[in-house]
Structure formats: structure tokens, C-alpha cells
Design goal:
By secondary structure, the chain is an alpha/beta fold. The chain has a single domain (2-199), classed as Aminopeptidase (3-Layer(aba) Sandwich), CATH 3.40.630. The chain contains 5 helices and 7 strands; from the N terminus they run βαβαββββααβα. The N and C termini lie close together (10 Å). The chain binds pyroglutamic acid (PCA). Pyroglutamic acid binds at residues 9, 12, 18, 20, 44, 69-71, 139, 141-143.
Amino acid sequence: MAKILISAFEPFGGESVNASANLLEQLQQQKLDNHQLVPLLLPVEGFSAPEKLLQAWQATRPDYLLMLGEAGGRAHITPERIAVNLDDFPIEDNAGNQPRDKPVVAGAAAAYFSTLPVREMVQQMQAAGVPAELSNSAGLYVCNRVFYCAMHYLHSRGATTRAGFMHLPWLPEQVANKPAGTASMEAPLQLKGILAAIAALT
Ligand code: PCA
């Protein structure tokens, strides 16, 4: 059985839920045949979240690290291709930090590619009838920072864990008070999507 450390985030940006935390909770009720899931909920704090994630990696030594986050406004589930070495937080994180125009890790690589099979994940989700597409930017906020720190750490250690990030749309209840046409995706469809994406991790 492949072990997957799977992380999600607490709410941020004025929202009272985070689609990724909701999905993590639903996933824990699922019985998977080929994968053992180790769930981890992270604070939306650019500086403490990577440390918590790396501690969990050390305790778990998973085959896969799948990081989840919410990207409000997106209509699709989006595996991220690339983490970049740049912080430029558009809003403060939940600890009140807002680094602008700063490297995530000074002197380190400009970027790291996801080592998950992102194309296959998208194909499996689409085959299951779930809107999914590749994304070329995880943003410059906490999600990209956590993604970059994880990839840098794993690369520096020569770890074999395959790792990557996937962004999820808002849930319908999150767009209830937003302009008409704001994208969202029902929780059951998000669950179907992630199960299809996980099935691609073989
Ligand atoms: N999304 C934010 C941070 C936490 C989350 O779920 C982001 O995309 O950076």
C-alpha cells in the first residue's frame, strides 16, 4: 500500500471554511484499496506551515506528499506544475505576515516542478467527469510557499517521496454572497475528483 501524506489548509481571507479542509475531512471517511492516507491540517501561516509539514513528513516518510489548497475563483481542480522561489503575498496570512518580493529560500533554485504525475491526474479526473486542468502557477502566497519549501526540502535530502500541490475551487456555499457567475464546485464532485487523482498515484 502506498502511503500518502495529504495536507490541507484552515480557512483564510475572510472565509469561514476552506474547501481543502472540507475535502480532507471527507477523504478520511473513505476506504481506499491501494493507498493509506495520513491527513494533516495546516494553518494559513507562511512561516509555520512549512515547518509543520516537514515535521509530519519526517514522522511519516510517505511515498507521496499531496498538498491541497483552495484557489477561489477557479472552476476546475488544478494540479500545479511548478513552485516558484518568490513570496509576494497579496494579503496578510493568518499570522499577520505579508512578505513582498522576497525569495522563499534565498540562493535556492528559482523553481521546482511537481514530481507527481500531474497530466495523468488531470486525465483521470476528466475521465471521471470532474472539471480538471493543469495550472502553471500556484500563486505567490502561502500555498506556493509551502509547495516550494516541501520541494526544496525533499530535493535537498534526495528523498524519494513524490510530491506536489493541487488547488480546489470554492464550495457553492462560499460563493453565495459573491457576484453571479463566480465559480464553485460541489463537495461530492471535489471528492470524486481527488479519488480519481489519487488513483493516478501508482
Ligand atoms: N489557499 C491559499 C493559502 C491557503 C489556501 O487554501 C493559497 O492559494 O495560497
